[in-house]
Amino acid sequence: MTYGRNDIAKTLYYRAVRECPWSKDLYIMAFRKLRSLFTIDELEEAMNVLYEKEIRLRVSIDKFDDNLRIDN
């Protein structure tokens, strides 16, 4: 929940990822709970970070990426 403070929520998200880069849950939070705050480009960059860090996912990110483009 952002309580209408989207700018602060986004800043806190980036700070959390910076402080805990090993936390897969934080990266995924951008796609599940905070999805409406991010642009497609920002979400694609987050996906690229997941690839670079070789974080294992249960769902193909390519399939998820197709869903992002349809919804937005």
TrEMBL record:
Key words, A-Z: Nucleus
Cellular location(s): Nucleus
Main localization, broad class: nucleus
Any one annotated GO CC term: catalytic step 2 spliceosome
A Gene Ontology biological process term: regulatory ncRNA-mediated heterochromatin formation
Signal peptide positions (record): none
Protein known as: 13671_t:CDS:1
Organism expressing this protein natively: Funneliformis caledonium
Domain of life, source organism: Eukaryota
